[in-house]
Amino acid sequence: MSTEPNRLSDPDTLPLIRDELDLLGELVSLTEQRIIELGCGNARLARALVLRHAGSELVGLEVDSVQHQKNLSVPQERLLFMAASAEAVPFPRQSFDGAMMLKSLHHVPIPAMDAALAEIARVLRPGGWFYVSEPIYGGALNEIVRLYNDEGVVRAAAQSALDRALAAGRDWEAVGERHFAQEAQFADWNDFAQRMLFPTFADHQITPAIEARVKAAFDPHCGPDGARFVRPMHVRLLRRKR
Questions:
Q1: Sequence-separated (6 or more) residues with CB below 8 Å from residue 23
Q2: Pairing mode, if any, of strands 57-62 and 34-38?
Q3: Where are the domains of the chain?
Q4: Contact 58, 80 (CB under 8 A)
Q5: pTM beyond 0.85, yes or no
Q6: 3-state SS string over 139-205?
Q7: What is the pLDDT of residues 162-197, one digit of tens each?
Q8: Which of 128, 189, 203, 229 has its CA 20 to 30 A from that of 176?
Q9: Which CATH architecture best describes the domain 11-240?
Q10: DSSP SS3 for 117
Q11: How far apart are the first and last CA of the chain?
């Protein structure tokens, strides 16, 4: 069972990790690995991974068609982008050595979370690793975002889905978990609004009144150098049973 707190009041107490690829590399071997990322977004970590680990290759799945087209527009050796979801992975059994979800499991529809975890187990080789990094429901940034997009329910559901998958005892075993802090920086209000209020992958139904309320909460955090937040994160590492 996860020890994930429902809220974390002081993320400043957590160790700050600026590059999550460093943490991933501490926990699993990234040499000569075939990896799949479910919900790869802009693929920042995926691109860095294949550059740093020359023997590895990675497949990035994304459901956001706008972001997927952006990813395809910047091809990279040993990096394949596909339009697909975690609930229906377009690969045969035991195709990958490792899998990762970075702030994406809670975006899977709640009724489909169990199916997504079963799909990931299906395409991993026995002994393969599964790295799940999820934001904790706490901190100053979360207090702003929850004004228009309260993720308390979906984040808890993601942890519960992992708990169920482990409790079933069929596919997964727990290897470890880590809590850390991650920086989130915004140049100004317009940068925040573009990235957080109006992302291409979701319609938050932002009205002028909601936008004004969010801006009023954001402005005290923004100075001449922009706004810097510390986002608390929770990693759970699972292994595919042999």
A1: 17, 178, 180, 235
A2: parallel
A3: 11-240
A4: yes
A5: yes
A6: CHHHHHHCCCCCCHHHHHHHHHHHHHHHHHCCCEEEEEEEEEEEEEEECCHHHHHHHHHCCCCCCCC
A7: 999 999 999 999 999 999 999 999 999 999 999 999
A8: 229
A9: 3-Layer(aba) Sandwich (3.40)
A10: helix
A11: 21
